[in-house]
């Protein structure tokens, strides 16, 4: 492989791992806080146990995320020096704000972990809320960097260097609203489905466990809500991308010809040379409806753009299909869960449904990774769209094999470590009901 291929492979592998750690780190504090609130309201110590487990998981993911994020910052300078040197002033502000949110999260997490029983319960809960909000804000600012890379704004390029920089305009580029909303929902959705799958697996063996029934109920509720909100967010994203990034939409849908009543292809194999999609299911006017809410609207195709600017069409299309397919399956499960809960007037816990939840556990992370591939592959061959090509940003240093394997082993080690530590947390959780407690006063903290 040449040095560009090595650089892209290393960055892609590192980001794929880091996104898993970061997504869970963003979402777990929400469950921690929900359980804490329910304990304070009911005095049920199962909720306290669940909150403690989520707090320990948050601490583990925070530490691992810090390591993997630090490695990524080194990789940005090592692999893409021209990009960082040219656009450091553009992306510096959101990265700085992300760092501030990260340190704020660390402070609140320390207070929450070590303040239990040592500070008033209200302040302790407020610290937990601070952890949850700081994690979300951190993810928000990182996503702003990606939005700027997808559609740069707020500066002029003069002789290859940005001038007349407006930091706020650059940070809040056109895609920022739909990208941040979609990304944050994906974090909560992926984590909630994973938690629901884990708790469902335990309930299949221990159906009477009060702790895991409560944990399953909360996880399933968050999973269902986010799974139904995400298609709405996706519709907003599609409409925005059709206006501001039509080439990316054309690649994602493998849409070659500009036309009205543009069809939507489900599945299929794109043939770039022939400009066709083979073996797919074609929905007439579907793409026009998706992109503009008007079935007769015109949608630009790949053939309207220079061939050298095309993203890798097949890879982008496959990633998009995986994301939509996984998201649709989760939305369907959410509808089924709501129907069963309504019919039963309680938690759906049949063995068939629990097995379905277990099978759906990985879908959130599959959709998250596929969505990231869509936004990154769909921007190629640009690292900063329309301004700098990826090949011009890469390091000239050709010997990238040693750092490639070094960072690969680092992320594999971190991944194995996280799985081991979280598995230990799961095994240590009590199966039997916790002794009852009276009231949810601050004294329980």
Q: How would you portray this structure in words?
A:
There is one protein chain. With 445 residues, this protein is mainly α. The chain has two domains: 1-173 and 399-445, no CATH class; 185-381, no CATH class. It has 14 helices and ten strands. The chain has helices at 3-42, 45-79, 81-115, 121-150, 167-171, 176-205, 210-244, 246-252, 286-292, 313-344, 351-360, 363-377, 390-393, 401-428, and strands at 156-158, 161-163, 259-260, 264-266, 269-271, 276-278, 281-283, 298-299, 382-384, 388-389. The strands form five sheets. A two-stranded antiparallel sheet has the order 1-2. Helix 1 (3-42) packs antiparallel against helix 4 (121-150) and helix 3 (81-115) runs antiparallel to helix 4 (121-150). The radius of gyration is 23 Å and the shape is globular. The model is unreliable at 433-445 (pLDDT under 50).
What's a quick, concise take on this entry?
By secondary structure, the protein is mainly alpha-helical. It contains 14 helices and ten strands. It has helices spanning 3-42, 45-79, 81-115, 121-150, 167-171, 176-205, 210-244, 246-252, 286-292, 313-344, 351-360, 363-377, 390-393, 401-428, and strands spanning 156-158, 161-163, 259-260, 264-266, 269-271, 276-278, 281-283, 298-299, 382-384, 388-389.
Main beta sheet: strand number and arrangement?
2 strands, antiparallel
Number of strands: 10
Helix content: over 70%
N-to-C span: 56 Å
Number of domains: 2
Determine the structural class based on helices, strands and strand pairing: mainly alpha
Low-confidence segments, given as residue ranges, are: 433-445
SSE pattern: HHHHEEHHHHEEEEEHEHHHEEHH
Number of helices, where a helix is a run of at least 4 consecutive DSSP H or I residues = 14
**What general outline do the C-alpha atoms trace?**
globular
Average pLDDT, rounded to a whole number, is: 85
Side by side, the strands of the main sheet go 1-2
* Rg estimate, integer Å: 23 Å
């Amino acid at each position: 492989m040449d040095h560009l291929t090595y650089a892209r492979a290393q960055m892609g592998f590192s980001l794929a791992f880091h996104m898993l750690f970061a997504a869970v780190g963003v979402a777990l504090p929400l469950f921690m806080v929900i359980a804490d609130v329910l304990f304070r309201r009911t005095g049920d110590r199962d909720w306290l146990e669940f909150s403690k487990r989520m707090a320990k998981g948050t601490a583990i993911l925070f530490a691992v995320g810090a390591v993997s994020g630090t490695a990524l910052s080194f990789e940005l300078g090592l692999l893409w020096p021209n990009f960082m040197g040219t656009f450091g002033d553009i992306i510096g502000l959101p990265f700085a704000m992300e760092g501030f949110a990260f340190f704020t999260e660390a402070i609140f997490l320390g207070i929450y972990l070590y303040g239990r029983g040592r500070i008033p319960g209200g302040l302790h809960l407020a610290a937990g809320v601070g952890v949850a909000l700081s994690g979300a804000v951190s993810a928000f600012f990182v996503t702003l960097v990606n939005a700027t890379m997808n559609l740069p704004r707020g500066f002029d390029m003069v002789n290859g260097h940005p001038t007349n920089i407006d930091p706020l305009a650059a940070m809040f580029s056109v895609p920022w609203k739909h990208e941040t909303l979609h990304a944050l929902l994906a974090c909560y959705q992926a984590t909630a489905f994973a938690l629901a799958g884990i708790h469902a697996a335990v309930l299949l063996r221990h159906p009477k466990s009060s702790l895991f029934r409560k944990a399953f109920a909360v996880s399933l509720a968050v999973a269902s809500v986010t799974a139904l909100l995400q298609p709405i967010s996706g519709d907003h994203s599609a409409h925005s991308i059709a206006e501001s990034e039509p080439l990316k939409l054309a690649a994602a849908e493998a849409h070659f010809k500009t036309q009205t009543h543009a069809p939507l292809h489900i599945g299929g194999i794109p043939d770039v040379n022939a400009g066709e999609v083979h073996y797919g299911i074609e929905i007439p006017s579907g793409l026009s409806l998706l992109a503009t809410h008007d079935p007769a609207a015109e949608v630009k195709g790949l053939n309207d753009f220079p061939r050298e600017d095309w993203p890798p069409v097949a890879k982008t299309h496959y990633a998009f299909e995986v994301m939509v397919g996984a998201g649709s399956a989760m939305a369907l499960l959410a509808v089924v869960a709501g129907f069963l809960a309504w019919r039963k007037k309680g938690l759906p816990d049949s063995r068939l449904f629990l097995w379905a939840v277990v099978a759906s556990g990985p879908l959130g992370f599959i959709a998250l990774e596929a969505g990231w591939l869509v936004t990154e592959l769909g921007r190629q061959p640009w690292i900063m769209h329309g301004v700098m090509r990826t090949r011009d940003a890469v390091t000239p240093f050709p010997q990238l094999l040693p750092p490639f394997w070094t960072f690969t082993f680092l992320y594999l080690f971190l991944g194995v470590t996280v799985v081991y530590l979280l598995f230990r947390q799961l095994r240590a959780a009590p199966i039997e009901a916790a002794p009852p407690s009276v009231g949810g006063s601050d004294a329980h903290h």
